[in-house]
Amino acid sequence: MGFTERLLLFLRVAESKSFTSAAEQMQVNRSMVSKQIHKLENELGIRLLNRTTRSMSLTSAGNEILVQAKRLRTVLDETRLQAQCFHTKPMGSLRINSTCHFGRHYVQKAVVQYQKLYPEISIELRLEDKMVDLIAENFDLGFRTGYSADSSLIYRELARNRLLIVASPDFLQRRGTPQSVAELEQLPAAVYSSNGSLMDKFKYYESNGEESYIHLNVVYKTNEQDGLIEAAVTGNMLSVVTASMINNEILEGKLVPVMTHINLADFGTFYAVYPHRDLPLKSRLFLGVIQKVIGERVPIWEQRIPDFEKLYVNRSVPSALISS
Amino acid sequence: MGFTERLLLFLRVAESKSFTSAAEQMQVNRSMVSKQIHKLENELGIRLLNRTTRSMSLTSAGNEILVQAKRLRTVLDETRLQAQCFHTKPMGSLRINSTCHFGRHYVQKAVVQYQKLYPEISIELRLEDKMVDLIAENFDLGFRTGYSADSSLIYRELARNRLLIVASPDFLQRRGTPQSVAELEQLPAAVYSSNGSLMDKFKYYESNGEESYIHLNVVYKTNEQDGLIEAAVTGNMLSVVTASMINNEILEGKLVPVMTHINLADFGTFYAVYPHRDLPLKSRLFLGVIQKVIGERVPIWEQRIPDFEKLYVNRSVPSALISS
DNA sequence: TCGCATTGTTGCCATTGTGACAACAATATA
DNA sequence: TATATTGTTGTCACAATGGCAACAATGCGA
Q1: Domains, chain B, ranges and CATH?
Q2: CB atoms within 10 A of CB A304
Q3: Predicted confidence (pLDDT) per residue in B22-74, tens digit
Q4: Interchain CB distance below 8 Å, B83 and A75
Q5: Gap from A212 CA to chain B (nearest CA, Å)
Q6: A68, closest residue in chain B (CA to CA)
Q7: Which positions on chain C have an atom < 7 Å from some protein CB?
Q8: Residue A233: which pLDDT band, with cuts at 50, 70 and 90?
Q9: What average pLDDT score do residues B78-93 get?
Q10: How far separated are the first and last CA of chain B, in Å rounded?
Q11: How far apart, in whole angstroms, are the C-alpha atoms of residue B278 and residue A61?
Q12: Could you point out which of A6, A237, B264, B313 has its C-alpha 20 to 30 Å from the C-alpha of A270?
């Protein structure tokens, strides 16, 4: 472990505020960390960390060096990335992060096809709905719904993913098919909810273009998206879902889209996210594969809804669907 | 040797265009270099250098990686520098580069005093008149005459160093003391010359402020500055020298300044040069010492010329003399 | 207030990766 | 064509490195 590696180790320690957890992240022994940090402090001739056995804080010098260590990490990451851009055949490994549902249903499928095409690449797929730091955790690609402007990441639109309201035919027969917002708001509904953010209010555009909101009568909220579909199929309530959550339930007659004339605000467009404008070959190829999986022009989930274009004709189409 | 060290090694190889000389600079075996470059190429998955046994060139990928390697070196250098700025007592080593004459006569003296004050610092002083890359060669301080705008270095004015015309009393008695430029141009002269740049034309300002040039009758040119003094003392010619070249020759009556009413354009102000705005303590202290050596307000060499201020009263004074 | 568990430190030791050496191969120059 | 220079490769001894385990310090909870 050289000077540079020590700096990166220090960065880890500072970011996790703990020798022990830094050691775990780097998969080395605690004692290593202690020794290397000492060595680094000797090399630099300054104390970087004030540490008692139970707590630690950066010295003022440590703060400055931390900034440098971050720059260092950036340079090294970009160097590796640059190199990968020159690859003529894909190689190495691919670390992918995705939201859970999309990951299970689509990324997973793409991974299988990708591995068949390029078996020499080892893939790691991690699914989690909470936002993670792609750079710090060294992911090559992320798949997210919605755009997050604060980061330095690059976002590329993959496919639109419209909001639908669905219910089982059985349910509709019993409770009546809602024709107006007022009727809709009477019916029991299942909605997605996560981390305290409850989605019970949905923006839509009235025919004159004005914004309005639907306040649903929420009786079931879950962060398990398949649960929403199941809840609707079971027939006790209607569900607000995105098109990508629907498998064959509509084709098989288990679910029926309702209130299709309502122009619900667009929601949850899928993006591929990556840490740098220049994509390495291996990542570029993966995007190609997943684009095939989810459909080039029309997302596969819309193809599973008969007459989707006609049903939802009054909705605005996203500006551009990427063709790889 | 880790990934980073390999990148820096690659940088060395690319800059010196040779495995062998890179090995010498890094003080390692040739075979090391070969192996490490191979390893780096494997890690990056790309070929960096096209090499035959006798020649080498960068690949296009190598060119990009080279840029990154340079960034890397910068970050690491700045990190070390930052750390040194936090030192409360001077430590480590000090690498100094200086022009030959100034180095022998003044830096040398400062080094001795400095070592007496801070014996724990090891000093390396390299004298050479040709410009060197302070950053690539890892110098902490450089002493140069004249300002070079192209680089990213920081320049700090140390002392003015005026151009004088001197001759021995003996010579002046035999050939007459020149009173006008025309007379001056008749007399044989010794001037400084180096690397093909012959300094036989000197700009001066006439009393009305207009620029003019003196074309000397050069009979001796040398890059050995002490030789100019000696030539004048010997009495066969006059010499154009800078004030810093004169030791006690004028005090001892061996040389006499002539044409002191001519307002020769300022030339060769001494600068301290360093790679970054923030100076480490050890460097700051050295600048303090050398400033003491060469004089705080009036350069020591001017103090060795009686009535300097009166003789050269009509010359413009440099904007600011730095007081440490 | 006391005890426990967590966390950083230190000394010791086996292992592994490292760099030196030397022979080889290739090519530019004389 | 011969020679010297320069990059490559295989082998081997050795030292630095990182893991282990015991230790020390301290914050938190009971």
Answers
A1: 3-75 (1.10.10.10), 93-152+270-304 (3.40.190.10), 163-264 (3.40.190.10)
A2: 17
A3: 888 888 888 888 888 888 888 888 888 888 766 778 888 889 999 999 999 99
A4: no
A5: 52
A6: B79
A7: 6-11, 18-23, 25-28
A8: very high
A9: 87
A10: 42
A11: 14
A12: A237
Assigned token pair, A29: 């022994």
Residue B196 pLDDT class (50, 70, 90 cuts): low
CA distance B63 to A10: 30
Query: Using alpha carbons only, what angle is made at residue A37 by residues A33 and A42, rounded to the nearest 5 degrees?
Result: 150
Helix (H, G, I), strand (E, B) or coil at B115: helix
* Tokens, residue B97: 């580069």
Which two tokens mark A120? 């020499």
pLDDT of A153 above 70: yes
pLDDT of residue B53: 65
pLDDT at B197: 61
Alpha-carbon distance of B143 to B272, in angstroms, equals 5
Beta bridge partners of A195: none
Sign of CA pseudo-dihedral B69, A13, A127, A191: negative
Q: Is the Cβ atom of B180 within 7 Å of strand C at any atom?
A: no
Residue type, B228: L
Q: For residue A222, list its beta bridge partners.
A: A192
Cβ(A81)–Cβ(A108) below 8 Å: no
Q: What's the length of chain A? A: 324
Q: Are A216 and A199 in contact (CB under 8 A)?
A: no
List, in order, residues 6 or more apart from A39 with CB less than 8 Å away. A6
CA distance A91 to A122: 8
Mean pLDDT over A117-123 rounds to 90
Q: Is A263 left (phi over 0), alpha (psi -120 to 50) or beta?
A: beta
Amino acid present at B278: D
56-75 of B, contacting A, C-beta below 8 A: 60-61, 64-65, 68-69, 71-72, 75
What are the C-alpha distances in Å from A322 to residues A46, A98, A161, A278, B304? 52, 19, 14, 17, 79
The residue of chain A nearest to residue B80, with distances taken between CA atoms, is A44
CB spacing of B4 vs A87 below 8 angstroms: no
**Helix H segments across chain A?**
3-16, 19-26, 30-44, 60-85, 100-102, 108-117, 169-175, 181-186, 225-234, 281-294, 300-303, 308-311
Q: What is the pLDDT of residue A318?
A: 36
Q: In this structure, are strands A122-127 and A141-145 parallel, antiparallel, or unpaired?
A: unpaired
| Rg of the Cα atoms in chain A | 25
Q: Beta partners for B188?
A: B217
Give the nearest nucleotide to B38, CA to C1'.
Answer: D8
pLDDT digits (tens, 9 = 90+) for B200-243: 778 887 777 778 888 888 888 888 888 889 999 998 899 988 88
pLDDT at A272 over 70: yes
Label residue B294 left, alpha or beta by phi (over 0 means left) and psi (-120 to 50 means alpha): alpha
Contact yes or no for B47/B61 (Cβ under 8 A): yes
From the CA of A34 to the C1' of D2: give the distance in Å.
60
Chain B interface includes A259 (CB < 8 A): no
B121 by DSSP, 3-state: which? Answer: coil
Share of chain A above pLDDT 90, in %: 30
Please report, for residues A25, A279, B117, B144, the alpha-carbon distance to residue B127 in angstroms, rounded to integers and kept in the order given: 49, 48, 23, 11
Beta bridge partners of B156: B272
